[in-house]
Specification:
Elements (H helix, E strand, L loop, with lengths): L30 E6 L3 H5 L1 H11 L5 E6 L4 H8 L6 E5 L2 E5 L4 E6 L4 H9 L5 E4 L20 H8 L7 H15 L4 E5 L6 H14 L3 H7 L6 E2 L3 E4 L7 H11 L7 E3 L4 E5 L15 E3 L3 H24 L5 H5 L2 H15 L11 H12 L8 H5 L2 H8 L1 H9 L5 H14 L9 H4 L6 H4 L7 H10 L5 H4 L2 H17 L1 H10 L10
Parallel strand pairs: 1-2, 1-6, 2-5, 3-10, 6-7, 7-8, 11-12
Antiparallel strand pairs: 3-4, 9-11
Bound molecules: D-mannonic acid.
D-mannonic acid binds next to helix 10 and helix 14.
């Protein structure tokens, strides 16, 4: 192993990138895609599929990456000729590749006008989004655009730089409609059910809330805008020094912004583009008329189970998902929620071999070399769980069955982000970020039953699930067992349902 001293190692640039690491060898294409959300996920997923597509077929599909507020990645990329490494890690070994598909890196909060110009440029034909569930500024209780959100209100008023994703998108479309009106595709790559439809609906709601003159100017242009749905799947942890070291070791140069990722990657896309697209099917993506079944499979089997592993893992003191899934009790709870509670609620796409898919999930979660943190998966539960838990839970409840492990997921979440008085959930849970923390925390001083009813009563998991008293009751029992007896006892309680709960439909 070569040991590189950081100060003596040259920086990754166009001149120093080892050619063997490049995913394609074409000249950098002009910008055809503006991507909002220049985080790790985009750089390890869409950028890699785009580079692979470009290797197979040339086209004007360079990506201008836009970070929302933080300049860290954009600045590092600018110092590296927009290059960075993807460090693919598994127990079998490490592979380091450089996608080389970015044509620029901007920060919306710092240079909003340049971003709006890029969105309006006639050469821009696709806008892609990875802004997390949280970035769509909808009201979790109703799913509608949150018109009480300060950022949304400011962006609707206009007159200053847009601060929300929808504000940026709509103001970009407005500039476009005024300049030339060329068609464009807006594609969400976030973990939302029916992400294309949701994005379209939110854009339309935003436009409908604009003053009449702006509304009538923009509404007809929306007919030129396509909103395909897409299902994205790759486990991408946060960057740490270990990955910087791995990139340096493999490339022989210093990369300040590498991205770790698992080897697995999947992208299912609805083929309804308004102005062309890269040959992503030649870069590993799958095109389909209906992304829905792929989305549900992934959001429930992978993401839903992932959340349970993260909460029970953090409460057991596990820093990482592989550590958590290696614990017999957590593995058992994961198996049960996946097989008995999520699986019966998803249609399986014809080309997916379910057994193989599920076996792969356990291998992926067990990737100890990757060390995906429980804190990362557990963060933002208030927006993530709403996409994962309520629909399957309500469908079981409607059929007269109590989904004990979905209740355990919610109980684990509450214990992590709003720990009942006197209960210490441990460092990994304390480190979880959640936009609802401040609202939920004061409720946790109440008796468990009141606390859980009030917590779900905030609408965090939608009104329908909150109205099932038997479900909130079951969550409360599991919170009590978690707090008093720990994770293993709660898993036993969920599996054997020692405490009988009558399932009432409301
Ligand atoms: C995870 C996802 O953090 C989470 O909630 O479940 O980020 C998951 O790793 C990706 O969706 C995998 O594609």
């Amino acid at each position: 192993m070569t040991v590189l001293t950081p100060w003596a190692t040259p920086r990754l640039t166009a001149a120093t990138t080892p050619s063997a690491a490049l995913l394609h060898h074409r000249a950098l294409p002009p910008t055809g895609i503006v991507h909002l959300g220049l985080g790790n996920f985009h750089r390890a997923h869409q950028a890699v599929h785009t580079a692979a597509a470009l290797a197979a077929e040339d086209g004007p599909w360079g990506i201008l990456g836009v970070a929302n507020r933080s300049a860290t990645v954009a600045d590092a990329l600018r110092e590296q000729d927009l290059l960075y490494a993807v460090v693919e890690v598994s127990p079998e070994g490490t592979r380091v590749v450089v996608p080389a598909v970015h044509t620029g890196a901007l920060v919306a909060a710092r240079e909003p006008d340049a971003v709006l110009d890029a969105l309006a440029a006639p050469t821009t034909r696709i806008v892609t989004l990875t802004v997390t569930e949280h970035g769509y500024t909808f009201d979790p209780r109703t799913g509608a655009l949150d018109l009480d959100h300060d950022g949304v209100r400011a962006d609707l008023r206009g007159g200053s730089a847009p601060g929300t994703t929808l504000g940026l998108v709509v103001r970009g479309l407005q500039r476009r409609a005024r300049a030339h009106g060329a068609p464009i595709t807006i594609m969400s790559c976030d973990n939302l059910v029916a992400n294309g439809h949701v994005t379209e609906r939110l854009v339309r709601e935003f436009v409908a809330a604009l003053p009449a003159a702006e509304r009538t100017e923009l509404e007809p242009y929306l007919a030129q805008v396509a909103f395909p749905s897409s299902m994205v799947d790759r486990i991408v942890p946060a960057t740490t020094d270990a990955y910087r070291a791995a990139a340096a070791e493999h490339l022989g140069v210093r990369d300040e912004a590498p991205v770790p990722a698992e080897p697995y990657s999947m992208w299912a896309i609805e083929d309804t583009f308004a102005a062309g697209r890269p040959a992503w099917e030649r870069g590993g993506a799958l095109f389909t008329d209906d992304v829905g079944p792929y989305e549900l499979l992934k959001l429930r089997l992978l993401n839903g189970t992932h959340s349970l592993i993260a909460y029970l893992g953090a409460l057991s003191g596990c820093a990482t998902i592989p550590e958590a899934i290696a614990r017999p009790a957590i593995r058992e709870a994961a198996e049960r929620v996946l097989r008995d509670e999520y699986r019966p609620t998803v249609p399986v796409p014809a080309d997916v071999d379910l057994e193989e898919y599920v076996a792969q999930l356990y291998t992926r979660w067990s990737n100890s070399a990757l060390g995906h943190r429980t804190q990362q998966v557990g963060s933002d539960g208030s927006v993530k769980l709403a996409q994962r838990v309520p629909e399957p839970a309500c469908s079981h409840l409607a059929a007269g069955r109590m989904p004990h492990h979905l209740a355990l997921t919610v109980a684990g979440y509450l214990c992590c982000v709003a720990p009942p008085s006197g209960f210490d959930p441990g460092p990994h849970a304390r480190a979880m970020n959640d936009p609802m923390r401040e609202r939920l925390a004061p409720l946790a001083t109440r008796s468990t039953g009141d606390f859980v009813a009030a917590a779900l009563g905030t609408g965090v998991l939608g009104a329908e699930l909150a109205a099932h008293a038997s479900f909130t009751g079951r969550v409360a029992e599991l919170v009590d067992v978690l707090v008093r007896h720990g994770v293993d006892a709660a898993v036993r309680e969920a599996a054997d349902h020692l405490t009988p709960v009558p399932v009432t439909s409301r």
